[in-house]
């Protein structure tokens, strides 16, 4: 759920109650390779049609609807992200207020964290502690992955509950950094020992991505909001932030009306990638934005992006029209098409196994 329209619609959920899962007794026993790619497909808001796929790059084979086929129940409403920790895949399902943990070999559920507001991402600090970012909430939840329970909260200073938004997280030493996206312009610095926000850095409007490079510098990309928004509309930008001093080192401006998103780094943290209609790439030491894209826009909707950590191949999720099955494109590091395959509706996130 990446559009502001979808974010606004979230409040309607308060009137519609909790998600119910439909069960199916016909289950599939999976036997998958040790390495591959999970694709998280959001589905449509309030349709409960999120799905999970798995792709094996070695034989170009894709398995769709793996959560449903392994567990006999639907994944839920708007699957947002997935992270692997402790040999479990943790799938954050935004509008169903839940995080599922699955076995990464069988895809069978091992537990779930429930009663979250509207979870976006999970960041693990230890076997017994993780942070969960939220949208439409001014708190980051503290959870215990072993007991699948909520143990506390980190409240963001100065952020109203009505427009609260925390998003992606990256760690340097004991500090966890988090971008505040919807209607916000902040990067948070959290002391993971005390679970407190110890510093806040203002950047451009709506930083939607956060990553860290090989030189321990944070990078965030802002989308600038949208026209007629009461919260502002401005030129998007790419920021480089020193993680030690928590200061902006340099920034790059796009053009008004651009919508950059999905900022990624390659396997050694030396190159940046993002979506701005096309797929773009630049070295972390470049002093200006690239003049031509790595992969041209194809006329539909590039919606998700990931880089294979083993060989720097580029994977792009195409939402097409947000109603039919989405497409995944696999490109070489130089931008040549290697493979393409269909997955679920609105593929938006990836997780490497």
Quick gist of this model?
This protein has helices at 4-9, 13-16, 66-71, and strands at residues 37-41, 51-56, 61-63, 79-85, 88-93, 98-103, 109-113, 119-126, 129-134, 139-144, 149-155, 169-172, 175-180, 186-191, 196-202, 207-212, 217-222, 237-242, 247-253, 261-265, 271-276, 278-283, 302-307, 314-318, 325-331, 337-345, 347-352.
Note down, in words, how this protein is organized.
The chain is mainly β. The protein contains 3 helices and 27 strands. It has helices at 4-9, 13-16, 66-71; strands spanning 37-41, 51-56, 61-63, 79-85, 88-93, 98-103, 109-113, 119-126, 129-134, 139-144, 149-155, 169-172, 175-180, 186-191, 196-202, 207-212, 217-222, 237-242, 247-253, 261-265, 271-276, 278-283, 302-307, 314-318, 325-331, 337-345, 347-352. The strands form 7 sheets. Strands 3-2-1-27 form a 4-stranded antiparallel beta sheet. A 4-stranded antiparallel beta sheet has the order 4-5-6-7. A hairpin with a 2-residue loop joins strand 12 (169-172) and strand 13. The radius of gyration is 19 Å and the shape is globular. The two termini are 23 Å apart. Residues 3-21 have low confidence and may be disordered.
Write the layout of secondary structure elements.
Blueprint: H1 4-9, H2 13-16, E1 37-41, E2 51-56, E3 61-63, H3 66-71, E4 79-85, E5 88-93, E6 98-103, E7 109-113, E8 119-126, E9 129-134, E10 139-144, E11 149-155, E12 169-172, E13 175-180, E14 186-191, E15 196-202, E16 207-212, E17 217-222, E18 237-242, E19 247-253, E20 261-265, E21 271-276, E22 278-283, E23 302-307, E24 314-318, E25 325-331, E26 337-345, E27 347-352
Antiparallel strand pairs: 1-2, 1-27, 2-3, 4-5, 5-6, 6-7, 8-9, 9-10, 10-11, 12-13, 13-14, 14-15, 16-17, 17-18, 18-19, 20-21, 21-22, 23-24, 24-25, 25-26
